Model the fold of this input.
Amino acid sequence: MGLSILLADGHTALRQSLRTLLEEHPQWRVVAEAADGREAVRQAVETIPDVVVMDVALPLLNGIEATRQIVRLVPTAKVVILSMHVDEGYVAPILEAGAVGYLLKYCADIELVPAVMAVASGHVFLSPSIPRSMLPDRGPSTPRG
Done:
């Protein structure tokens, strides 16, 4: 059937842009969208997506807590976080919550597709703008955008 994806971002225009970018791949399908963290968790449980692409700054339930809940409730889902922040205060808690991808929003048009490919294949993907010192110690399978 291909790769199923859940998009979660509070900005409708950004979700639509990301959907367009992802659906250029004929084997990929956006199965659900969410505008807040609670909806993201609910949609993940209902649709069991392969990949969740989620903003860290979601209303009602932030992306860190939503990630924690999604990886607990849908352990097969791979979470890729979108953020505007490079600092360790954001990156470390997100990775500790269970995300396997971290992209900077301003690079999403270039890095989203490689990130989804990497995490769907079982790899961790961090935006090349993330300092190497923040990489999780998960072995040699960490592509760097």
